Amino acid sequence: MQTDNNNAFVISYLNLRLGLGFVGFFLPIILMAGTWGLADCTQLQPSLSHYYYTIMGDYFVGSLCAVAMFLFFYKGVDKQDGIIANFAAVFALLVAFFPTNPSVDSICQYISTNKVASVNAVHYSAAALLFASFAYFSIFLFTKTDPTKEMTAHKKMRNRIYVTCGIIIIICVTLIAIYNFVGKLETTFAKYKPTLVLESIALFAFGTSWITKGEMILKDV
To answer: Closest by alpha carbon to 125, among 163, 176, 80, 84?
Structure first.
């Protein structure tokens, strides 16, 4: 009976990781497709955060709240995992409830609000810290191995995936920062939506890392 309870706990824990991974991985796709399908608006927003003002705004906020919930319940293998997860959960809520400033040329805008510099600053600071937390999970926490056990071939492959995903997240966040702080770049590349593209890539990497951690792929026998 005790074994059955332990198995149920492990399955639930793996599903928690998978759920978090799927929410992150599919968020960019659903936001873009939803705006197109529900509002018949094909205009891409400057960033994922700007979908807050579209017809998919509720889904954007709800997804971040779901991510926060998953992270609050996530404890990991030691105390450090739980602490980082709790901080990341707070960052996710700040991103959700402190929206970025609306885009001035969006034709998909569903709601309107005034620009507030302090709210915008909280949003982007929290978003940067949230992505940094995701990268930390991938590079430093997911790669941990029980020292009493021999590392399997699948574990080595999973570790490569974790590290690769973490590095991709860091590169994307760094490029977003450079793009936003160098005025000439913004003027030249704005039409290509670099922030939206880089955020989407970072979330795909985040989702892949957590889905792998949920043992959907490369599972040890």
So the answer is: 176
Question: What six digits make up the tokens of 75?
Answer: 């404890």
- The tens digit of pLDDT for each residue in 180-206 reads 988 788 888 889 999 999 999 999 999
Q: 3-state SS string over the chain? A: CHHHHHHHHHHHHHHHHHHHHHHHHHHHHHHHHHHHHHHCCCCCCCCHHHHHHCCCHHHHHHHHHHHHHHHHHCCCCCHHHHHHHHHHHHHHHHHHHCCCCCCCCCCCCCCCCCCCHHHHHHHHHHHHHHHHHHHHHHHHHCCCCCCCCCCCHHHHHHHHHHHHHHHHHHHHHHHHHHHHHCHHHHHHHHHHCHHHHHHHHHHHHHHHHHHHHCCCCCCCC
Q: What is the pTM of this model?
A: 0.91
CA Rg value for the chain: 19
- The answer on pLDDT for 5 being more than 60 is no
**Which two three-digit tokens encode residue 141?**
């926490």
Cα–Cα distance measured from residue 163 to residue 27, given in angstroms and rounded to the nearest whole number: 22
Determine contact, residues 161/213, Cβ cutoff 8 Å. Answer: no
pLDDT the model gives residue 1: 46
Dihedral sign from CA coordinates of 43, 114, 65, 129: positive
Residue 2: the pLDDT is 47
For 34, 103, 120, 174, the CA distances from 100, given in Å and listed in that order, are 20, 9, 5, 19
pLDDT tens for each residue of 17-44: 899 999 999 999 999 999 999 999 999 9
